[in-house]
Description:
- By secondary structure, the protein is α+β, with helices and mostly antiparallel strands.
- The protein contains 18 helices and 24 strands.
- The strands form six sheets. It has an eight-stranded mixed beta sheet, with helices on both faces. The protein has a five-stranded mixed beta barrel with strand order 1-2-3-5-4.
- A hairpin with a 4-residue loop joins strand 20 and strand 21.
- The protein is globular and about 95 Å long.
- The mean pLDDT is 94.
- Its EC number is 6.1.1.23.
- This is Aspartate--tRNA(Asp/Asn) ligase.
Amino acid sequence: MHRYRTHTCGALRPSDVGDTVRLSGWCHRIRDHGGVLFIDLRDHYGLTQCVVDSDSKAFKAAEAVRSEWVIRIDGRVRTRPAGTENAELPTGAVEVYIDDLEVLGAAAELPMPVFGDVEYPEETRLRYRFLDLRREKLHANIMKRGAIIDALRRRMRDGGFFEFQTPILTASSPEGARDFLVPSRLHPGKFYALPQAPQQFKQLTMIAGFDRYFQIAPCFRDEDARADRSPGEFYQLDIEMSFVTQEDVFQSVEPVLRGVFEEFAEGKRVTKEFPRITYADAMLKYGVDKPDLRNPLVIADVTDEFAEEAVEFKAFKGVIKSGGVVRAIPATGAASQPRSFFDKLNDWARSEGAPGLGYIVFEDEGGTLTGRGPIAKFIPAEIQARIARKANAKAGDAVFFAAGPEAKAAGLAGKARIRIGDDLNLSDKDQYAFCWITDFPMFEWNEDEKKIDFSHNPFSMPNFDHDAFLKLGEGDAETILGIKAFQYDIVCNGIELSSGAIRNHKPEIMEKAFGLAGYGRDVLEAKFGGMLNALRLGAPPHGGIAPGVDRIVMLLCNEPNIREVVLFPMNQRAEDLMMSAPSEATPKQLRELHIRLNLPEKK
Length: 603
């Protein structure tokens, strides 16, 4: 017989009744029924009920065991007594009568229980993550993560992609988030950087002649934590393809994501054909560039209506005169809601820094659509009707309004759209609703530095005549800010899963693009010399994308926080409480690296 087990704790079935078996695992739960002990024994594969009574030579040893002790038991499989079966367990029809028991690993008093779903403070959970991972839900999430990654790999290989590994120690890059720097012992005063993404390496792989690349790539960014982003490190499905257009990328990537989501959706619907939405339309209709399409509400621009001379609502008039806009958010069926519904939305808008949300409630009066509410009296009936048509509102609906500078009005309208959809139960949550966002602006205005900046990926190809692009200068700011790029995102249920682009494979166009963003040729050569040299020696047109693995798993596990699907996450302050990282370096280590610390004074 094997030293530790003949079966796992999830393997025994009625066909094993009468057999002598050996199991090893953790004591999940212990129940004392007065002379009879029931031990639910758990391992990675499942749980088996084990029974010992005072007639067994193992009874004394069994009395000593406690929760989460690791034990080995020998015993006979028998059918559970009628009425005690557990249909929710694969092993629920049988139990093991213990003849012998050995303690393999005793456990001290637990800082948190494994049995049950009691919530514990995040600090405790992260400090004792190995205990937290024994809990059924989190354990299942991590196993599902592995299965999802396997499915991604399988589909990528089936699509003709080959998996590569790119360097972890590389050079710092001036764009994007803050780098994690690694000091070089052999080159005093110089530093490697951990890759924010394998961006340059995957492009160089295409330039090297490998046609279709993918990698489950670790990425490192010194950013603050969020619910959908781990601090420090994350993983992405990194993809690159040669001799492709934007449409080719869509046709290659969409089936992979759709197939994986269908495989793990557990009955939820998955978008069959991902709709394409331009960035401009997304900001207008949804108030955000990552729209949640489970929500059916569509925002409309009603600036022209409120600018009409006949409209007497002065608050919006002032906004429009100063260059602002007015956005209308429909609220289907809201007319039947009590006054408190509208008051709460107004209070919420004020908490967002807005003066409030004006609204009109539409009713049918003798076959005529009529508006009522605080601002309805300031708007003539014919203009109310135009607003209703634009907002796709009918009798029984309400329309809310957000006004201000375009970016702020769009942002408030987008948040209001989500809140209204949730409050009125309009969103169909039983689905994974995907879309592509396309035609991102190549550049944006940096108000703080009073200069033009990249708005997205700086390595993207501008969607602009190349000869005309090369002639742009300082006096063409308006034209430059209007240039679109071959950049695109995949969004699912309001979460950005990935960004991608057709790359800028022409060195003269890249030099010009960086120059327009204020990076001199010397900076470009110093930071991207390897890339530029490669582009100068024959580069194919190429493009790619990088869906976030952690976010994909988070969605498929229906978890609101990414730490629930990461094996060993850090806390909000980018600390590993379990391993005490980051930690101080010893004086010897600092001397070897030629580093002297200049720490801030403690307050």
